[in-house]
UniProtKB/TrEMBL annotation:
Keyword Transferase: yes
InterPro entries tied to this protein: Hexapep (IPR001451), Hexapep_transf_CS (IPR018357), Hexapeptide_acetyltransf (IPR051159), Trimer_LpxA-like_sf (IPR011004)
Molecular function GO labels: O-acyltransferase activity
Pfam families assigned to the protein according to its UniProt record, in alphabetical order: Hexapep
Entry's family note: Belongs to the transferase hexapeptide repeat family.
Organism (species): Methanosarcina mazei
Protein origin, superkingdom: Archaea
Alphabetically ordered keywords of this record: Transferase
Example of a GO cellular component annotation carried by this entry: cytosol
PROSITE patterns given in the database record: HEXAPEP_TRANSFERASES
Name of protein: Galactoside O-acetyltransferase
Keyword Chaperone found: no
Amino acid sequence: MISYRKIKKKILKSIAPSMPINHLRIKLYKAASYMIGDEVYIGEKLTIVDKLSDQNNITIGSRVAISPGVILVASSEPNFSKIKQYVKTVHGTIQIKDDAWIGAGAIILPNVTIGEGAVVGAGAVVTKDVDPYTIVAGVPARKINEVRIP
């Protein structure tokens, strides 16, 4: 049976992506129990795919920039398919550390940490952890450069 909290989370995370003001999007995601730091920008049409539980499986650090159209996949399963018994169901976490920048349309898969100050290029599919101050791009995402801070 679905609890009140699960219904609330589902409603909030379905409304938040269409809010025209960043502050409202952040407020709704926090109300849906996602951990979000200070001075974060979340672009419109962020999609979060996760199991509707009270567990906090998405953590976004401070000063993170998430461009429009990003997809965070913390949970993946074949649902009612006949192959369900033959494939691995994944329910994991996604952590985006402080000062990271996620480009438009990027997809981040379960059990991935985006390191502090890392950059994920637009359209990248991130299947494994990204080291701090690293720039990744492509499908699957691979290191293409480093963020150089004087």
